[in-house]
């Protein structure tokens, strides 16, 4: 009986749905990982872009100053231009008005310019970045871009000498001719973060929409792909559902080579073929058993009915002898059938007992009765041959081989026992007519007699060799017919057991 464990309510039972769900889950993990990487990368790139824009605006302020243009207060970045010898800022904007720098500059003034001026080394696009502490805002200042209590901010700055500017520019800026000007740009951290967050949020929305659509498409594609792939399995299921034990002749269609279902279809066809063979063998066995039982029963019933019909003319001792002979034949046939039934339902096992096959063969050779024909039975062995198993079953196996040889031998039967490479090899050789090569395996089938002209009484039940081979297989051995120029030779191979096991 097949037992199934409890199923989780949220997990689908369909293979298609399970595969689609598993593929969608794996895709979701991959897409989330990719989305997180894209999120972090976009945020980093957006921050760098914001910093680059701040740098561009800073350099533009320096260029305007060198050209004599006073920058406007409207700016996207806070800036302040201060000069030596000047209390108020030269220019400011972008939020620096929150500190009311009109009367006094907020950021520190540069040192005085060196005189004379250093030699010109060509264009210099360098600038300096360092943290600067900004003062607290006045209480009256409205809320703006800086904290009310001040704080430390990273600033970019660069110095410009007034003596390098034209007199009109110096006059326009309102500074002394020997002054030094410094351009400050305050880098607000939240400004870059705001830009990065805006870009990242837009990117995340697009990624989420694309991810959801991708998951639905992946799940749908996998679902229908698995559905198409499982069509051969469904066809196999429908066909095998119509197979019955009494008629297992149906066969499934085997897909082309390279298909994963090919092995399954081939295995199922092999299983169905074995079932068909087993059913055919069972039908033949039942038919043969019925036929074999009918013959002695008919003979027994006929002799008894004749004796009862003509009691005064019946030789009662002869009738009783015939009845006894047919009864013994029925008994032997019944015992053989029961033994075969037990062997068919028992798994091959090696018994725990240890016995000497040589001693058993010599004992059977000495005790075997030859009542009707003068046969010579000899046994040849060089040493004891120990095997594991059931002594009664081994005796039945050897007796069946000797009985078969005795029915076909002309003058003698030779038994030999040898030990070879961990195996015990026993042969039973007779000098009879032998067995044709084409029937070397057929003689081990049940109820098979090659000599149909023989009487049933002399020919046996037709089960002796079948029982012998099944007993050999039960003890993990083999029984085969080996080719000989004269007579038939049956070879029995059994695993050898150590002699110490018996002790």
Automatic annotation (TrEMBL):
Residue ranges constituting the HAMP domain according to the UniProt record: 227-280
Q: Kindly give the InterPro entries that the UniProt entry links to this protein.
A: HAMP_dom, HATPase_C_sf, HATPase_dom, His_kinase_dom, HisK_dim/P_dom, HisK_dim/P_sf, Sig_transdc_His_kin-like_C, TCS_sensor_his_kinase
Q: Which residues form the signal peptide?
A: none
Catalytic reactions of this protein: ATP + protein L-histidine = ADP + protein N-phospho-L-histidine
Ranges for domain Histidine kinase: 288-498
Which keywords does UniProt give here? Kinase, Membrane, Phosphoprotein, Transferase, Transmembrane, Transmembrane helix, Two-component regulatory system
- CDD domains, A to Z: HATPase, HisKA
Transmembrane region(s):
20-38, 207-230
Domain of life per record: Bacteria
Where in or outside the cell it occurs: the entry states:
Cell membrane
Keyword set includes Kinase: yes
Q: Listed GO molecular functions?
A: kinase activity
What is any Pfam family matched here?
HisKA
Q: EC number(s) of the enzyme?
A: 2.7.13.3
Q: What is this protein called?
A: histidine kinase
Species in which this protein is naturally found: Streptomyces ortus
């Amino acid at each position: 009986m097949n037992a199934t464990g409890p199923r989780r309510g949220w997990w689908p039972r369909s293979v298609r749905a399970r595969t689609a769900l598993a593929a969608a889950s794996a895709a979701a993990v991959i897409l989330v990982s990719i989305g997180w990487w894209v999120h972090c990368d976009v945020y980093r790139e957006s921050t760098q872009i914001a910093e680059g824009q701040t740098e561009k605006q800073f350099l533009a302020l320096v260029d305007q100053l060198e050209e004599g243009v006073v920058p406007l207060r409207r700016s996207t970045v806070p800036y302040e231009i201060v000069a030596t010898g000047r209390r108020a800022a030269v220019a400011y904007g972008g939020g620096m008005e929150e500190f009311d720098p009109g009367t006094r500059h907020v950021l520190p003034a540069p040192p005085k310019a060196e005189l004379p001026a250093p030699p010109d080394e060509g264009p210099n696009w360098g600038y300096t970045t360092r943290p600067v502490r900004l003062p607290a805002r006045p209480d009256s200042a409205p809320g703006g871009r800086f904290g009310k209590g001040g704080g430390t901010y990273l600033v970019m700055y660069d110095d410009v000498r007034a003596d390098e500017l034209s007199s009109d520019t110096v006059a326009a800026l309102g500074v002394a001719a020997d002054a030094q000007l410094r351009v400050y740009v305050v880098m607000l951290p939240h400004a870059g973060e705001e830009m990065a967050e805006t870009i990242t949020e837009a990117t995340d929305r697009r990624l989420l929409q694309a991810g959801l659509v991708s998951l639905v498409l992946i799940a749908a594609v996998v679902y229908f792909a698995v559905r198409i792939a499982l069509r051969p399995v469904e066809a196999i299921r429908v066909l095998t559902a119509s197979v019955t034990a009494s008629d297992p002749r149906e066969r499934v269609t085997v897909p082309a080579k390279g298909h994963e279902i090919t092995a399954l279809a081939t295995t199922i066809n092999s299983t169905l073929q074995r079932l068909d063979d087993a059913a055919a063998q069972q039908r033949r066995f039942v038919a043969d058993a019925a036929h074999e039982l009918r013959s002695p029963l008919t003979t027994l019933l006929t002799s008894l009915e004749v004796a009862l019909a003509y009691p005064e003319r019946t030789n009662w001792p002869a009738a009783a002898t015939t009845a006894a002979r047919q009864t013994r034949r029925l008994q032997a046939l019944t015992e053989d059938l029961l033994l075969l039934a037990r062997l068919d339902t028992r798994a091959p096992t090696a018994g725990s007992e240890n016995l000497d096959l040589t001693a058993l063969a010599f004992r059977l050779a000495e005790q075997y009765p030859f009542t009707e024909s003068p046969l010579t039975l000899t046994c040849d062995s060089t040493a004891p041959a120990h095997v594991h198993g059931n002594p009664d079953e081994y005796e039945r196996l050897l007796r069946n081989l000797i009985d078969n040889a005795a029915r076909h031998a002309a003058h003698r039967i030779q038994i030999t026992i040898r030990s070879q490479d961990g195996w015990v090899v026993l042969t039973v050789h007779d000098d009879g007519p032998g067995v044709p090569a084409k029937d070397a395996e057929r003689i081990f089938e049940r109820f098979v007699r090659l000599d149909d002209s023989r009487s049933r009484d002399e020919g046996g039940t037709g089960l002796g060799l079948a029982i012998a081979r099944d007993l050999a297989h039960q003890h993990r051995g083999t029984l085969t017919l080996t080719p000989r120029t004269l007579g038939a030779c049956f070879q029995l191979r059994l695993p050898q057991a150590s002699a110490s096991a018996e002790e």
